[in-house]
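Postdoc handover notes: sequence design on the structure in folder B. Input tokens:
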């Protein structure tokens, strides 16, 4: 299933979500152009990659902890970037609407951190601790987890095979979560940190239940006045 849009209009302008989209796209574009020697040069791209991508072994030894955040804004390729940005674009605006702008930014970062630690805790092969990890999918998984709590009845217009269908959030994101869990459980990684997705999703749900629902209800009450 591929989400195309949600039938859930935001009541505020998603400034932070737009900035996150722009930041991810610009950072990837600069690094990709550098890797092709079009803008700056390949050395810049390699240096940035080595400097800002998270390596689990370094994190557990308290080294380069800033990469827990910088790695959230780096992607391995165009497909990786576009897939993540599609989900962030569709689901992020409504979550920001519920949390508020600054709280949404904090929420996003916390989910990304939770996803990173979930990935590190899932590692069992010593060699995997030296494999670099990058991408916004952990933080975006948190956005999905919050969305399913905040808007379970919203409809997600999705491409299913060759058919476009409006699917309830609880079914679409519930299926997505189960698939991430199964991929992680059966170690069908294929280079994807599925336990980071699971950890981010659960963190997003917890934060939405703890804070998001209250903020959403308060906003809805103000709009009814």
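Designed sequence:
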């Amino acid at each position: 299933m591929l989400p195309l849009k949600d039938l859930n209009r935001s009541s505020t302008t998603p400034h932070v979500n737009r900035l996150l989209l722009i930041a991810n796209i610009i950072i990837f574009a600069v690094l990709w152009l550098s890797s092709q020697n079009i803008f700056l040069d390949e050395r810049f791209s390699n240096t940035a990659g080595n400097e800002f991508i998270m390596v689990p072994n370094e994190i557990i030894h308290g080294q380069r902890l800033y990469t827990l955040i910088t790695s959230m804004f780096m992607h391995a390729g165009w497909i990786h970037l576009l897939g993540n940005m599609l989900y962030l674009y569709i689901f992020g605006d409504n979550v920001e609407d519920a949390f508020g702008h600054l709280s949404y930014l904090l929420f996003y970062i916390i989910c990304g951190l939770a996803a990173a630690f979930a990935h590190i805790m899932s590692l069992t092969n010593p060699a995997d601790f030296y494999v670099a990890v990058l991408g916004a999918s952990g933080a975006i998984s948190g956005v999905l987890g919050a969305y399913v709590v905040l808007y379970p009845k919203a409809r997600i217009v999705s491409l299913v095979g060759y058919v476009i269908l409006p699917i309830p959030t609880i079914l679409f994101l519930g299926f997505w979560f189960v698939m991430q869990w199964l991929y992680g459980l059966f170690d069908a990684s294929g280079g994807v940190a599925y336990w980071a997705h699971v950890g981010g999703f659960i963190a997003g749900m917890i934060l939405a239940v703890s804070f998001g629902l209250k903020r959403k209800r308060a906003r809805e009450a103000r709009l009814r006045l």
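Context for whoever picks this up: The chain has a mean pLDDT of 92. Don't rerun without checking with the PI first.
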